[in-house]
Write a structure and sequence with these properties.
Elements: E1 3-5, H1 11-20, H2 25-28, H3 32-48, H4 50-72, E2 76-78, E3 81-82, H5 85-91, E4 99-100
Parallel strand pairs: 3-4
Antiparallel strand pairs: 1-2
Helix pairs in contact: 1-4, 3-4
């Protein structure tokens, strides 16, 4: 599993870029695979009904902010780790490699 360490991460920029530029804040945080999965889930949500897509976009921006904050604080995290528990539970549907240090076990 690839670990990411990025002490120069900017949480505010990551959140803004994630929300307004197709989730690219995850790429700025070094999580390209996570970006692809959240983009797919967001597009599915937008296709099914606009509201789920908007909610997932907001959760994705929050996750990018939380991840960038952790990276800025010197933490090393796995490439597919989600910082937002709710987004993790949604994306786990298609992202089988996903991990989350704050999610409660399901089942």
């Amino acid at each position: 599993m690839n670990m990411i360490s990025k002490p120069d991460a900017n949480p505010a920029v990551a959140a803004i870029v994630t929300y307004f530029a197709f989730g690219l804040g995850h790429v700025m945080n070094g999580q390209t695979d996570k970006w692809v999965k959240t983009l797919i889930i967001t597009l599915i949500g937008m296709f099914l009904c606009v509201l789920p897509g908007i909610i997932i976009s907001i959760l994705s921006a929050v996750d990018a902010y939380q991840t960038a904050t952790r990276l800025k604080n010197g933490e090393s995290i796995p490439e597919n780790e989600y910082s937002n528990g709710l987004l993790y539970k949604i994306c786990k549907i298609i992202d089988k490699k996903a991990t989350c240090n704050t999610a409660t076990p399901v089942g």
